[in-house]
Amino acid sequence: MAEERERSFIKSEDWWAVWIGLFIFVLSLGVFLKLDLLGWAVKTSVWINLSKALAPASATYKALPGVVSLLLTYVFLLVVMSIGARVLGASPGRFAAGFTAIFWLSYLSWILGHYAYIAATPDTRAKFGITSSLSLTGEAGFIIALVLGLIIGNFFTGFANYLKEAARPEWYIKTAIVILGASLGVKASQALGLATAVMFRGLCAIIEAYLIYWALVYLVARKYFKFSKEWAAPLASGISICGVSAAIATGAAIRARPLVPIMVSSLVIIFAVVELLILPFAAQAFLYNEPMVAGAWMGLAVKTDGAAVASGAITDALIRAKALAVQGIAYKPDWMLMAATTTKIFIDVFIGIWAFVLALIWCYYIECKPGERVQPIEIWYRFPKFVIGYFLTFIVMLAVSLSGPAALKTANAAIGQADVFRTLFFVMTFFSIGVISNFRTLRQEGIGRLAVVYLVCLFGFIIWIGLAISWIFFHGIKPPLA
Amino acid sequence: MSTETRAAQEELRSELQEAQAEPLLAVEKQLVAWSIGLGVILLGILVWLSYRLT
Fold first, then answer.
1. Which of A10, A195, A251, A316 could pair covalently with A188 via S-S, beta carbons 3.0-4.6 A apart?
2. Is the ipTM of this complex over 0.95?
3. What's the pLDDT tens digit per position in A134-165?
4. What is the pLDDT of residues A435-454, one digit of tens each?
5. Rg of chain B, C-alpha, whole Å
């Protein structure tokens, strides 16, 4: 049943990320026909005076009060996401209630993160009449959302259960990634050589990561922690490749019992949160001279789509702030995010191929259930469909932006509006990751051995091999200057 | 969570705690060796390609 759902154009979360992402993207293209279809959405600015924090994204709607803009944005997203959730089988009432709480708590975090004493970088402090700030940029709101989610998820479990129907970080981040493709397509048009380098080097890094990571983790799990093949294979995929999706795909490929990859997945989520809280700050401290290394490192080291892209966004903001403060260098935003997203997406793309390879090896060389056959169509079934949406929006906006300066200007206006929604999906991702991450999982009996091998592999060599591979392929490459 | 799922999870947890080690099969050792070996060899080739082509 679950597999049939994943294969459906209508009943899979991946496909709904594509539909909703493309819907928002297409609406943003209205500016090319002089139709401002999304300009009413709320844009948040760094503030010292709260009344100036909110405004419509487009000057066309400047008469609209910021609070009304925010309410319209909420209603729009509630309707769109509720339609998707209903088709995905969620309870409409529970989803709407949960989504409402998630939206408003996420947005509260976002607006708090934009408070000037938290967000303002040194070059903007004078504008707000302040002499000191944490210089975290508005993206501090992501961390606030994550921490708030973690508090709810771990200390208010009743409320967390209430939110569960709508706490879907993978759905939110995949939708955000589809919209992100458009933004990165426009940026790529302005530095085509760099964008090509990021794509190609990201692909190289992934090939290395798959071949080296998976084998090492599998060996450690089998030989030193004495796990059976059934446990070691999903564990290796979950730790080394892409967390939840890879563990489940591998479990299916080798015909493991369904609960095996699910138990692995629960650990993946916990550890991804720990990485999200530590690695971007470590990257800011030690890699601000190598920003693209930092971005790729997030994509290689952080093991769920939500947490990896989220880490990329935080790293992008933190390193830009530090480079400006320490070196006086102002990098254009989102290039480190591009490196993180590109490496993560290529990891996702190869899951299907890797699962197919494992299925072949298991079936023909290790153990084959009677009547079992391995079919190449499994590669398509495992292919992450949201990547199709990402590449579609990327290619469309790349082509449009390359067609001339006027088109580029309009394209920038379009992505400015779509990015309002991309940002909101990001914030809700951070918050939802926190809500679903219950650290009490680690205390469950039997999960201890899984957690130890996860800890040893992830912090023992995955993170460092990922850093080494990122360094090899990305050092010396810098984002364009603003 | 259903009673069946809870029971299945308990069974898996006990299995994790009590499982005896299975020795690595020859094909598993080959899988690991080939994978790491190919990764190391390709590293040199891909690094050269990435700096040459981009």
1. A195
2. no
3. 887 788 898 899 899 999 999 999 999 999 99
4. 988 777 666 656 777 888 88
5. 21
What pLDDT score was predicted for residue A114?
A: 94
Which chain A positions have a beta carbon within 8 Å of B21's beta carbon? 226
Contact by Cβ (8 Å): A221, A454: no
- Rounded to whole angstroms, the Cα distance separating A170 from A72 reads 24
The pLDDT, as a whole number, for residue A418 is 94
CB nearest to B16's CB, from A201, A214, A446: A446
Indicate yes or no: CB of A473 within 8 angstroms of CB of B13: no
Sketch the domain layout of chain A as residue ranges.
2-474
pLDDT class for B6, splitting at 50, 70, 90? low
Contact A208 B31 (CB under 8 A): no
pLDDT at A373: 64
Q: What is the pLDDT of residues A284-307, one digit of tens each?
A: 999 999 999 999 999 988 888 888
Contact between A450 and B17 using a beta-carbon 8 Å cutoff: no
Tell me the angle at which helices A140-155 and A259-287 cross, rounded to the nearest 10 degrees.
140
Contact, A143 vs A389, CB < 8 A? no
> Best interface-test mutation with A: which of B43, B48, B49, B53 has the largest number of A CBs within 10 A?
B43
Tell me, yes or no, if A99 comes closer than 8 A to chain B by beta carbon. Answer: no
Q: Which amino acid is at B18?
A: E
Which pair of tokens denotes residue A273?
Answer: 């949160």
In this structure, what are the phi and psi dihedrals at residue A238, rounded to the nearest 5 degrees? -65, -40
For A336-397, give the secondary structure using H, E and C.
HHHHHHHHHHHHHHHHHHHHHHHHHHHHHHHCCCCCCCCCCHHHHHHCCCHHHHHHHHHHHH
Classify A205 as helix, strand or coil.
helix
The rounded distance, in Å, linking the Cα atoms of A147 and A423 is 17
- Look up residue A175 and give its two tokens: 């939708």
